[in-house]
Design a protein that fits this description.
CATH superfamily: NADH Oxidase
Distance between the termini: 19 Å
Structural class: alpha+beta
CATH class: Alpha Beta
Strand order of the largest sheet: 3-4-8-7
CATH topology: NADH Oxidase
Helix content: 25-40%
Strand content: 15-25%
Length: 205
Amino acid sequence: MPPSANGPTANGRSADHDIDPIFLNRWSPRAFTGEAMPSALLMRLFEAARWAPSASNIQPWRFVYAHRGTPQWAPLFDALMDMNQPWVAQASVLAYAISDRFRRRPDREPTENRSHSFDTGAAWAYLALQAHHLGWAAHGMGGFHVDAAHEATGAPAADYRIEAAIAIGRPTGAETLPESYRAREIPSNREPVARFAFEGRLGGA
């Protein structure tokens, strides 16, 4: 299908097909004000994640979080790789998205949940969109030390997969970042739909 002429333009990005501009306006900044995030506001992000689609309604997602300046912050922060710590230091909240590898029912033994990561990814997307809707931002990252993150969050590796770390904060100007990060503080573009959507059979390089 050829691109639509009706796709919106927002945040320096253009869609080829007609979608809601929230998908263009949401992005993953690194520059945050460092202001405290009210707990009630953070719960609105988790409430959005709660309503993500889930295979058999298993809801395998878990989030372990800490507000900056609290005792819970340091272990989660220390599990990040060095490249992320300088900018995450100004986030309001640091969280880890974790998925339960198993289907758990009160009346039976746990069984493998093949879609645990898929479903937790959907919950993360809902959280990120809700953050943007409220004027905040959520930046997901894979740059953390896995063993340290399991230790910090208390999530046993045999039962849980840590999918991502998430920095949450109020976005601000790039000039607040260390200089090495400033050039990257722009919304990124995406590959066109034709690169990843195929009718009938996977194709293309």
